[in-house]
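Example record

Each entry pairs one chain with its bound ligand, zinc ion.
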Amino acid sequence: MDQDQLRHMLAALVAEHKALDPAYSYSRFGADLARMIGRKEPYKKQYIANVLKGVKGYPVSGELADGLQRLGAVQDGMDEFQAGLRQLPAGVQSMTPLHPNSVIMGASRLCAKPGCGLWFVPNSPSRRYCPRCRPPRHT
Ligand SMILES: [Zn+2]
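Structure tokens for the complex follow.
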């Protein structure tokens, strides 16, 4: 989607929320958007207003576009947990069989060995090296 389409989507979502609740504000919208993408700071109402107006220097960022898509999905009836999930990027591989509807809870990290360059989802919070550099111990 280009910037105009995203701005149009933003305006439509705000309008739909306002139709359901006349007290709905840019502040609440900014908070809802931020929550959808796990952002700690809510978007400020002025920021939302500037993005909507297409003010120079206020593009619909990738992050904001992501939040819009998720909020739109919730509006269309998807539950918030489901809408908050991310699709796996291409090239993700697993060392174990994964059920088709699995949810991976851990964040990926870069292997600590210089030059390795492999990203992995650690099986423990203290793990710093990928399974290629330090194979997991089996008991
Ligand atoms: Zn490694």
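The pocket of zinc ion is lined by residues 111, 113, 116, 118, 129-130, 132-133 (CB under 6 Å).
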